Amino acid sequence: MKKHRSSLAVGFPTIVNLLLLLAFTCLALLSLSRAKADQMAARHSWRVSSGYFQADSRAEQLLGAMEETFALPPGEAGVEIEAWLNDQGIAAFYDQTAALLSFTLPAGEAGTLQITLHLLPNGFEITEWRLAPHE
């Protein structure tokens, strides 16, 4: 007479293997999801940073182009620089009573770079140079 072996010896390891395979698949999918989220965050951070630094570089170039004008008396320099910036397509405002020249530059996803200069008899002083995020 033949004895039949129990099928439990074959079925239990198979079930354990399937459960382990399912657990590793879930872990891999979670890791992939996290990597995708990190990639998106890194790309956003890159766009924000590069937007700010492009606006910062543009502002430095503008200040360099205005350097000769700062030798004028503050009232004349402010009016002339305000007109020049407005001609460049940059919204600028000069407050004659406080001798403050303000203008903003777009910084992409980062927002806008707000710059305020206090005009002095022989130059200027930066009173504000900040990044304002979009609302």
Give the number of DSSP strands.
Answer: 4
Termini Cα gap: 85 Å
- Give the strand order, joined by hyphens, for the main sheet: 1-2-3-4
| Helix content class | 40-55%
Helical run tally: 2
Label the structural class: alpha+beta
Low-confidence runs of at least 5 consecutive residues: none
Number of domains: 1
- What is the H/E string? HHEEEE
Model description:
With 135 residues, the protein is an alpha+beta fold. The protein has one domain (8-132). It is 53% helix and 22% strand. It has helices at 8-65, 74-87; strands at 92-95, 100-106, 112-120, 123-132. The mean pLDDT is 90.
TL;DR?
Helix content is 53%, strand content 22%. It has 135 residues and is an alpha+beta fold.
List the helices and strands and how they pair.
Layout: H1 8-65, H2 74-87, E1 92-95, E2 100-106, E3 112-120, E4 123-132
Antiparallel strand pairs: 1-2, 2-3, 3-4
State the main characteristics.
rod-shaped, 4 strands, 135 residues, alpha+beta
